[in-house]
Every structure is written in structure tokens, then in C-alpha cells.
Automatic annotation (TrEMBL):
Superkingdom assignment: Bacteria
Entry keywords, A to Z: Transferase
Alphabetical list of Pfam families matching this protein: GST_C_2 (PF13410)
Span of the signal peptide: none
Lineage: Bacteria, Bacillati, Cyanobacteriota, Cyanophyceae, Nostocales
Protein name (database record): Glutathione S-transferase
Organism of derivation: Nostoc flagelliforme CCNUN1
A single MF term (Gene Ontology): maleylacetoacetate isomerase activity
């Protein structure tokens, strides 16, 4: 878990830095509409939360993630809402 947290931190630190310094960040990674960058961000934050990695040092990522999970497209894309979803949940393993 320490190894995973180390590398997760490396990636999230870099991303937080990029977003803060880009000048393009808005409600989402690039402006005020979701882009592919946000699509890739959501699973990273999900994994961080799943493995109990604190997101406190990443206020920009936290703000963007909150925008994503409240957006109708992201809500509709949740795995458990898909037609082929089973009752199995990866959280059952932990």
C-alpha cells in the first residue's frame, strides 16, 4: 500500500500543479465543460478514495472531481447503472 500511495501521490501532485499553473482550469480540467481529461481524472480519484489516500493536498482536483460527479454524463456513466452491471462490487474485496 505504501508503494501505491507513493506513486499515486507523485501523479496527483503533478496533476494538481499542472491544473493550478495552466490558466485553463475552470469547473473542469480544461474550462467549464468536461473533456477527456476529466474522464481520466475520475477513476484516479476513485482509486485514491478506495485505497484511503487523502485528497486534502489537492483542492483543485477535489473541486474538479466534485464538478464531474455531479454532471449528468458522469452520473449516467457510473458502472452500477450500466445495463450489464452485476451485483458484484469491487469494494466487496476490501
Amino acid at each position: 500500500m505504501n508503494w501505491y500511495h507513493h506513486w499515486l501521490g507523485e501523479g496527483l501532485n503533478a496533476l494538481e500543479d499542472i491544473l493550478i499553473n495552466s490558466g485553463f482550469c475552470g469547473s473542469f480540467c480544461y474550462g467549464d465543460e468536461p473533456t477527456i481529461a476529466d474522464v481520466f481524472l475520475v477513476p484516479q480519484v476513485y482509486n485514491a478514495e478506495r485505497f484511503k489516500y487523502s485528497l486534502d493536498p489537492y483542492p483543485t482536483l477535489h473541486k474538479i472531481h466534485k464538478s464531474c460527479i455531479c454532471h449528468p454524463a458522469f452520473i449516467a456513466a457510473q458502472p452500477h447503472l450500466q445495463p450489464d452491471a452485476s451485483e458484484y462490487s469491487p469494494e466487496d474485496e476490501y
